[in-house]
Design brief:
The complex is a heterodimer. Chain A has 9 helices and 9 strands. By secondary structure, chain A is an alpha/beta fold. Chain A has a 6-stranded mixed beta sheet, with helices on both faces. In chain A, strands 2-1-4 form a 3-stranded antiparallel beta sheet, covered by helices on one side. In chain A, a hairpin with a 2-residue loop joins strand 8 and strand 9. In chain A, helix 5 packs parallel to helix 6. Chain A is globular. Chain B folds into 2 domains: 124 residues; 146 residues, no CATH class. Chain B contains 8 helices and 2 strands; from the N terminus they run H-H-H-H-H-H-H-E-E-H. The chains are: A alpha/beta, B mainly alpha. At the A-B interface, helix 2 and helix 3 of A face helix 1 and helix 3 of B.
């Protein structure tokens, strides 16, 4: 079974509002995949469904052959689009927390990344700047040796220098056979690292293609294609 | 995993809660020390201190309760929930850790309040005497009521534990239901709490009334001898005969315990189900 993530007829509704409808998708292993779409297209909802933070209204979602649950949480590392760490925590608390619950957490990798940023384990999150907190959060997520990384808008709202740091952290720390699913609408910044893209529009998949195909067959960049597909 | 969850639950809550309990005991110690100079302190100051002390005792219990309820909400249903709910642990484990931590802190809170009261009460008598007085009351009270001491205190203890547990779980349940809504989750939680509370009050009232009516209808025929030697038969409500009354009251307490147990089970499994199947972090 080469597919790491499969979904069939996946729907999510909030009351009468359909946020995701009839998604059919298969994602392989060892790839960096861009989940691209404008605001409100359902990217975050899909990320939450993968991470069992929402329950699908209908359809099936399998990760490495399992429905979202304890088994899948062991192999999926998730970075939400906002801060989710308790501000009372110190970096050392966080390391202990991740090490206690995730068998694949690599403490030395985390310590190494923190040292490079001159962040002390004794530092408290509430005394850090927003950017530093985001970096700490990313370090925790990327210090896991997961099979699937779900990064929801990892570079939104940060300055270009921080974007470079985040992207290099992502690229330098994921295992080759792991899959990276990155949701964003800032395509130009991540286009160069993507193997595959999935375009999401109003809760539906409008395109799934390899970046190479887009460049060679359609003779355009992902950024330009995105602008065409999502033209207002 | 429960051990690890409990460890982190404890680490996240202990500082503020321990501080509250320390303040309570420190205030009692301060009062006890000041009472050495009771003759020199105006009675008004002593009265004000006592009022303040009672307020602090009540506040420490209430604040602890509120802090732990808020912890449940924040840690599972707000931003922190994105981490807690993506941990590879079962929903039962997440719930049990919160519940056990809550019960442990409730127990510690009760102990610290008892210690504070004992410290302050030791102004008039040594603590050892007070403790032995309490011990003798625990033994003599059931004897005077004509009931088995072990059975009575077991029922009282069971009622206290189940009462506390059901209160905690009712808050958990209300939050879990409220957070199923897409918007206004806190308002929905508060409304759920008041609806649940009202329904439970109505059921309790109906139980009390039903039990009272059952007692009233089972009148006992008692034959009494008058001073003139003429036997007179009177109809007496069961409740007026001490032994029957105690037996009935015992039955009522056992029924109350069963009712609380059913509530705890219903609330617990509802919370578990909502956390597992209806999680709605948006």
């Amino acid at each position: 079974m080469n597919e790491l993530l499969t979904m069939q007829g996946l729907c999510k509704q909030y009351g009468n509002r359909c946020v995701l409808s009839d998604l059919n998708l298969s994602l392989g292993r060892g790839k960096i995949i861009g989940l691209l779409g404008p605001n409100g297209s359902g990217k975050t909802t899909l990320m939450k469904l993968i991470n069992n933070l929402l329950v699908p209204s209908s359809g099936e979602l399998l990760i490495d052959g399992h429905k979202p649950g304890i088994e899948t949480k062991r192999i999926v590392s998730y970075l939400p689009d906002h801060m989710y760490l308790g501000s009372w925590m110190r970096v050392s608390n966080l390391i202990e927390y991740f090490a206690d619950f995730y068998e694949d957490f690599d403490r030395s990798r985390a310590m190494d990344m923190l040292r490079k940023l001159s962040i002390s384990p004794a530092d408290q999150l509430q005394h850090m700047s927003k950017g530093t907190k985001e970096k700490v959060q990313l370090i925790m997520v990327m210090s896991r040796r997961a099979k699937l990384y779900c990064l929801d808008e990892p570079i939104a709202g940060v300055d270009p220098a921080a974007r470079d740091y985040i992207l290099s952290t992502i690229l330098n720390n994921y295992d080759e056979d792991a899959t990276l699913l990155i949701s964003t609408h800032l395509i130009a910044d991540i286009e160069n690292i993507l193997d595959e893209v999935v375009f999401l529009k109003e809760g539906r998949i409008v395109m799934q293609s390899s970046v190479e195909d887009i460049r060679q067959k359609q003779n355009t960049s992902v950024d330009n294609l995105f602008r065409e597909v999502f033209k207002c | 995993m429960l051990k690890k969850m409990l460890k982190h639950e404890w680490k996240a809550t202990w500082k503020l809660l321990a501080l509250l309990n320390i303040v309570t005991i420190a205030l009692a110690l301060f009062g006890r020390t000041a009472m050495i100079f009771e003759d020199k302190i105006p009675p008004m100051v002593v009265a004000l201190y006592m009022i303040f002390f009672i307020i602090v005792l009540i506040a420490s219990g209430c604040i602890s309760f509120v802090l732990l309820v808020v912890r449940y909400y924040r840690n599972l249903y707000t931003d922190e929930g994105y981490l807690t709910n993506t941990l590879p642990v079962s929903s039962a484990c997440r719930l049990n850790a919160k519940l056990l931590n809550f019960l442990a802190w409730t127990l510690l809170n009760v102990v610290s309040i008892l210690i504070s009261v004992l410290i302050l009460a030791s102004t008039s008598q040594p603590i050892t005497v007070l403790i032995s007085d309490i011990g003798s009351v625990l033994v003599s009270l059931p004897r005077e009521m004509g009931v088995n001491a072990v059975a009575m205190w077991l029922v009282v203890f069971g009622l206290m534990v189940l009462g506390t547990l059901s209160s905690i779980l009712m808050f958990y349940f209300s939050i879990s239901v409220g957070c199923c809504f897409n918007t206004h989750k806190v308002v929905a939680s508060v409304v759920t709490f008041f609806i649940t509370y009202t329904v439970l009050q109505v059921i309790s009232l109906m139980m009390v009334m039903g039990f009272g009516m059952a007692m009233f209808s089972s009148r006992t025929i008692v034959t009494q001898s008058t001073t003139s030697g003429v036997a007179v038969t009177v109809t007496s409500p069961a409740g007026s005969v001490p032994q029957n009354f105690l037996a009935s009251e015992g039955t009522f307490l056992v029924i109350t315990m069963l009712f609380l147990l059913v509530l705890c089970v219903a609330f617990y499994f509802s919370c578990k189900y909502l956390l597992e199947k209806k999680l709605n972090l948006n």
